[in-house]
Fold:
Amino acid sequence: MSEAILGEHRVGELHDPHLAHHFDSSTQQFSAAKLGMWIFLGTEILLFSGLFCLYAVFRGNHPEVFHYAHQFLDKNWGALNTLVLILSSFTMALAVRSAQTNHRRELILFLGLTLLLAVDFLGIKAIEYTHKFRENLVWGKRFLEDPHPGLVGAGAVQAVKSDERQVSENARPSQAAPALAPGNKDRGRDLFRVTCAACHGLAGQGMPGLGKDMRGSSFIEGLDDAGLLAFIKKGRQPNDPLNTTGKPMPPKGGNPAYTDQDLMDIIAQVRVVAKPKGGGSAKVAAKPSEAAPPVPEEPPFEIHKSFLQPAAEGPVGLAVTPAAGHRADVPDPRHDPNRPANAQTFFSIYFLLTGLHGIHVLIGMMVISWLLFRALRDEFGPSYFTPVDLGGLYWHLVDVIWIFLFPLLYLIK
Amino acid sequence: MATQTSTIPAGGLAGARDSAEKNYLNESKGILSWLTTLDHKRIGVMYLICILGAFFLGGMSAVLLRTEHLSGTPNLMEADAYNKLFTLHGAVMIFLFIIPGIPAALGNFVLPIMLGAKDVAFPRLNLCSWYLWVIGAVCALLSLLLGGFDTGWTFYTPYSTSSPFQGVIPIVTGAFILGFSSIFTGLNFIVTIHKLRAPGMGWFKMPLFLWGLYSTALIQVLATPVLGITLLLLIVERALGVGIFDPALGGDPVLFQHFFWFYSHPAVYIMIVPAMGVISELISVFSRKHIFSYQFIAYSSIAIAAFGFIVWGHHMFTSGQSELMNTIFSLLTFSVAIPSAIKVFNWTATMYKGSIVFKTPQLYALSFLFLFGIGGLTGLFLATLSTDIHLHDTYFVVAHFHYVMFGGTVIAFLGALHYWWPKMFGKMYNENWGRVACLLIFIGFNMTFFTQFAMGSQGMPRRYFNYTEGYTTYHVVSTIGSYIMAVGFFVIAGYLYYSLIRGRKAPDNPWGGASLEWQTSSPPPVENFKKDPIVGDPYDFSNLKYDPAIGGYVRVDAQGVAS
Structure:
């Protein structure tokens, strides 16, 4: 008797090759698949919600970080990507409809278009990521370690070449302070940060009511290293008639522990900081200890020039051109004295969110490719389109998540 | 075949005919037919074998830990090895054993049968879950080979991001993958219960075990993705220094604790709620009495699942959380006691005036009531802010969660294993040995962990390698208790293994259960039912009569005639 019942089941299965043995009907199977997919999408949203929660916590605690750092994202690329994804959701919806209405050629066309748009999205994302990596606008530790100090922008590689020539020219020892070794401006930069920057700012831009603006200072340019050393050791009190700010410049910048060599290091950095305005070329900085003739003004790229490194002791000085897509009106965040603490957190969250989303786009592309493959084998039709439907749902989810990411990351006010 | 027929008792002709028939165990042969199976029963059995392997690994590490504590000075291992070992014990027991234990192994086997379905909704996904479990377990083993990990199973930052041992990333990856395994199982169960109930099987005609599994599946689906992203963040934090949890990079280590416990506190209910479902079955069947207040027990499972999501902050009472948050979380934590108590009272009321049968599964159910009662009530001490400050991170906490996780979940798991063993393998185990083992485990467990309440309240901190003189007696008693428990487990392993070879052929319904799995043969056929089961009240035992000829219960009609 049991054999007979088994036989009946087997006969029943023959009606629809897609009906699995443990379902009673195609309707039941379809609704189960759909419920399962919705639950799965729920878990996907929860997976992302962890990151959204992270975003909320950090933005709530440090709004200044987000407000400051978001300006380094390119709204145009982001907006374009939003359009691309919305369009791809539209073509995906059309693909589902084509499967339901048994239009095989349209199904293939729309699946193909969706795939193409997904490739577009990742391509644009790759452009954005390349910019971020080139400018080192990346996550926490890597951002802070700054593996290429001073290397900013697309023109950097070219600059390295031209700079190497300068290095060989400047291999001569400095004549300014024979008793002392030439200043090490790497060390000097650190000393500058902990001492001088308190009044003069990290970039030597000066602070109202405190230190003077060093950038393009003719006073600094007019003194050789020995002269500067003597000046810094003495300082300049407010009662000195030459004092223009009314604030004291303390001897040795307020740290009596500094040796002359320390100050020489700082001077090397001061030369970097004080390089005349418009002197974007490496030539001026290349001869810090000699009285360099004034260099004709060159117009561009004001924002980075003050971080130009002199090439006195090695191939570290690099000329700078802004990266494509980098806005000239925003400061270089790595050396910006107004940068809020922990600005790198924004980039960490940016890469986490867009990275996880990018992985989902990749998975979605695999799903669409698989659907395309099956559509080419003519497996879908009005009686069986579950995979297209569910694949479409997944793709819409990927789209919806981006629609939240775009304003949260790019459009902060 | 010859050995099988020879063990069939006289008069068991029906059994003899059945044994010659195909069932899910003998329907196809070879290891490949198991590794590629889509049958939920075989997947359940594969899960069972694997999680018992994990339980052995976790249990042996616990015995080593206890042995180390026989004296307050190093006697077996160095401090680093001790740290790695308690971390291994915790991680293996939690991620590889307790979480998948009841749902994935036993639930997989009985859930579709209880519903009157032929399989779970997505059999391929079900097999995929099992493979993900295996991959997760391989990751855990890999991390041992790479130098182990000593972070504690909670992987707290910043220690987990700076620990010198290289096993951290593999084990965290493993836990991430195990999370997916858990999500897929939960998803499968939810859809199966929604869509594949047999005709006539309404929501309130389901056995309460299914309500437990359904609540568990809800938590798995809602909480585990958050663990997934947390572990992912931990991996990128350690590998790339992304700076989310590292204060040196502007991150917040307490945020990790929030993320972690947002999953891991509900996960405690992933572990205990299916166990409560088991107990609802056992108490009713072995008291031969309808379950008391079915709907309250069903809804209390959902209530525990819901409350479980809003109490995670009680793990951070001493982590610098604000006073206000502490107070709110403390209050909310007490709320979990309500649905738990509803269950315990209803089980007790079910037994009242019932004809209680002291079979092995029922002994485990009674042990559960006693041990879970202690575990639950000591939880109130820890939910109370002022006492928690004193008891935090002491052996009191260790004892509390072992009373819930072991005294609750593992005891229920053992009860369920003994309850469904005849159905799964078609063999009866030796009842007397079963009772002896249960007694050994009960005594050993209390010796091991009750002493820990005492030493914890006197200030013995958890996870410490050494201790001062004053705690020696407690530690020695605790260690001896763990040995007794270990003996109990070896006894169980012995007689269960023996039953597979020489065991008496199991009748279809050895305990007189009224849920659908007892209407099919033992072991069930591949398609679960040879004829459509009769759906009725799963706790109505009035039409089941014991038939000594087959050693089990048969269904009778109103006139007392077998139907």
About this structure: The two ends of chain A are 74 Å apart (CA to CA). Chain A touches chain B at residues 1-2, 5-6, 9, 20-23, 28, 31-32, 35-36, 39-40, 42-44, 46-51, 53-54, 57, 139-142, 144, 341-342, 344-345, 348-349, 351-352, 356 (CB under 8 Å). Chain A has two domains: 24-144+343-410, 155-305. DSSP finds 16 helices and no strands in chain A.
